[in-house]
Amino acid sequence: MPKRNFYREHPKFYVGIDCIIFGFQKGRLSLLLLKRNFEPSKGMWSLMGGFVQKDESADDAAKRVLRELTGLDNVYMEQVGAFGEIERDPGERVISVAYYALINIDDYDKELVRSHNAFWTDINELPELIFDHQEMVDKARNMMKQKASVNPIGFNLLPELFTLTQLQTLYEAIYGETMDKRNFRKRVATMEFIENTDFIDKTGSKRGARLYRMNSDIYRKTGKFKL
Amino acid sequence: MPKRNFYREHPKFYVGIDCIIFGFQKGRLSLLLLKRNFEPSKGMWSLMGGFVQKDESADDAAKRVLRELTGLDNVYMEQVGAFGEIERDPGERVISVAYYALINIDDYDKELVRSHNAFWTDINELPELIFDHQEMVDKARNMMKQKASVNPIGFNLLPELFTLTQLQTLYEAIYGETMDKRNFRKRVATMEFIENTDFIDKTGSKRGARLYRMNSDIYRKTGKFKL
DNA sequence: TCAAAAGTGTTAAGTTTACACCCATGA
DNA sequence: TCATGGGTGTAAACTTAACACTTTTGA
Question: Lower Cβ count inside 10 Å, N or C end of chain B?
Fold first, then answer.
């Protein structure tokens, strides 16, 4: 279809992308943040970002930006929303769309991350962030918490095989509160799609802990999730 | 701060605004839709829309667009999200930010609405909408339902004084399911910020029904809401 | 042999659901 | 006087929360 300039009286804007990248490591929820080595605000901490290009949707731009940093494809991502304050970026007007991503922390391109000057930071001990990035993080964290309570998205933060203690520690980090071990395991036991395997993890204890796996096929058919 | 064109290698886009406007009337949840009398897609049904301008934030643009149609200010609005598919508007590339609004259906500028060729449509009997507007409506409806279950935003759809039957009918329309009258009233009774008044509404029945009011001050102090 | 994490059931409290009849009034 | 919507309580089912000890094994 030929372009007809229906809207030519209206202004155009840069459309940015910002990624809140969640990881889970040593029992703690972390974000992958970068120390900017370019202007504006060079030297400060920020989310990984980029700009929407002509040949890609906003969602695709977010996937690309995440891939540029981590080398990962096929990552669980959700849009957080558009951030459109006039002065949110003091350099130029940019309307930014934020996304959050859940990645398995064993499983990304460490060299790429290093070359971007990016580091994992405990979500409860974040440095000061540029622009409105803290606001994006807060909104993303709330959305993620809400979604994770009712959809099994948390498994994206774990290795394929995990112990129940790891799963519980993850949910404790997401909710920011501790849970009762027996009640937690009782709930897990009702969910058929959290299957046990014959493998034992010996790294976390002398006795060893049974490894479990999330079975998405069973979830799709029968799944009610609530943790 | 002087503009320095840090980002000049990146493309710019029109940024649209689309409003999902909820109203409640005769026991039914409705949307205010317009029949487009301009290109593209002239003659089809769409959401009320507009474009972000240079001197306004996205949120302010949404308020303006809503005001242009309804004459209303200070309306409860929430962002639904950014819609950024390349071909979502077949005329030109537009990245659109959708918002939903909850308005009291007695309380808007009918003349303005008529002049925009806009009409209330039962949310369960929507006509075919242009572009990705149905997707926006679906997402807005889910977000609104979720939010309304846990925050007293529904009162924005009612007159200041309302009967418990009106309140229940509203929530039944939001959830798309009927509720038990006694259980509903029991729950309302636990919420101190839903206060009864000395007024009686005689329009809905011969006997008359007590009118209630939402007290936001009490809600802010003590409020737990769940319907 | 002991420290450290894994694993395992029961009971009480609280919440949710189901359910049916009388009341007040205007037409 | 009767049709219409307004208003009211109780008991059973279910869900959630609290709680402590035994097992295994490597160091």
Answer: N
